[in-house]
Design goal:
With 348 residues, the chain is mostly beta strands. It has helices at 14-17, 39-46, 81-84, 235-246, 285-288, 308-315, and strands spanning 50-57, 63-70, 76-79, 87-94, 100-109, 114-119, 141-146, 156-173, 179-188, 200-202, 208-213, 219-221, 230-234, 254-256, 259-261, 264-268, 275-280, 296-300, 303-304, 324-329, 335-340, 343-345. A hairpin with a 5-residue loop joins strand 4 (87-94) and strand 5 (100-109).
């Protein structure tokens, strides 16, 4: 799988969201689930406030699937950034009413793996009841719900306990070497699988305390997930980022609106040398100004670029129509600068 930056809006969508996935755990299967955890009751309360997400990817013409949490009756939906990364179209099917909606990505925070969608024409949806992740303690019973395996239909349910708090994981793209580190995660022994990403981790009262996050094809956690182990982004952190996105407040981490498309695929140049261009999309902004494969992108607007990850980070601060001065280096280190105006492209 090729990572296409925010430049090409990340064909890495499938890195978490699409299969193949392990066989989903049967409803209610658990590892040492507390006896007083009413899995069926929690499921009945949480499921109507979930959506199944399907995306069409831009460059590889593939697809991906994930889950989202309904935040408002008029169709604001919280999900993982990696669920929609690289998408040119997004569709969401509401579990509560069974209806399918076109969805727009309002914004995303790649560094915290959060995105917010707005469902077109939605009204009267069941919104999730959010809990307080600051009150979660090790040993709490939890229920994870999501679109495991991207199969659609009713959510797959897995119950368990909180096994650790404040955990960090590093996810890396096996092709490009680009990495993202997620911090302060809730670790559970419930099975959170590919496709569950963006789904709900709920407490015994059916309150959402975390956003399920899973690895998938081509994009893996640094240590690898063991069987019966999962992670979730605390809902307090996720909800705060979502509120910033809905308010339209961009920052160094939060991107609002359409993504900037250059038309490059890149990998790490190695040793902090830059982002190595592997290919270009015909007719793309980068191709039109004469950029070529095997050149190293070493700076954007004079800001050094030392890796594929760094290029993605810089591009997340830009939008279609910006004038960017891209500095590239060829054999022998000779440098040249070209002005490129990115187009509207696939999501982040």
């Amino acid at each position: 799988m090729v990572l296409v930056l925010a430049v090409l809006a990340g064909v890495a969508v499938g890195h978490y969201a699409q299969g193949p996935a392990p066989a989903p755990a049967p409803v209610g299967e658990a590892r040492a689930v507390p006896a007083n955890l009413d899995v069926a009751g929690v499921t009945a309360k949480v499921s109507p406030a979930l959506v199944n997400i399907e995306v069409q990817l831009g460059l590889d013409e593939g697809g991906a699937a994930g889950t989202g949490i309904v935040l408002s009756a008029d169709g604001l939906v919280l999900t993982n950034n990696h669920v929609v990364e690289g998408a040119v179209t997004v569709r969401a099917t509401d579990i509560g009413n069974g209806r399918a909606y076109n969805a727009a990505v309002l914004g995303y925070d790649r560094s915290h793996d959060i995105a917010v969608l707005k469902l077109d024409g939605a009204s009267g949806l069941t919104a999730a009841q959010l809990g307080d992740s600051a009150k979660v303690v090790t040993g709490d019973g939890v229920v994870a719900l999501g679109n495991a395996g991207g199969l659609g239909g009713k959510p797959i349910v897995s119950a368990g306990r909180v096994t650790a708090l404040g955990q960090s994981i590093t996810a890396s793209d096996e092709t490009t070497g680009a990495t993202e580190t997620l911090t302060d995660l809730i670790q559970v022994d419930a099975d959170i699988q590919s496709g569950d990403s963006g789904g709900s981790l709920a407490d015994a009262q059916g309150r959402v305390i975390g956003v399920d996050t899973a690895a998938g094809a081509g994009y893996q956690f640094e240590e690898g997930q063991r069987a019966h182990e999962g992670y979730a982004i605390p809902i307090n952190q996720a909800a705060a980022i979502a509120a910033q996105i809905v308010a339209g407040r961009a920052s160094s981490n939060v991107h609002i609106g359409p993504s900037a498309f250059l038309g490059l695929t890149v990998v790490d140049g190695g040793n902090g040398s830059g982002a190595l261009i592997k290919s270009l999309v015909a007719g793309s902004p980068a191709a039109k100004v004469g950029l070529k494969p095997d050149l190293l992108v070493v700076a954007i607007d004079g800001q050094p670029v030392q890796s594929a990850t760094a290029l993605i980070t810089v591009m997340d601060t830009h939008h279609p129509g910006d004038q960017l001065k891209i500095t590239v280096a060829g054999q022998g280190g000779r440098q040249a600068t070209a002005t490129v105006v990115p187009e509207n492209g696939p999501v982040g």
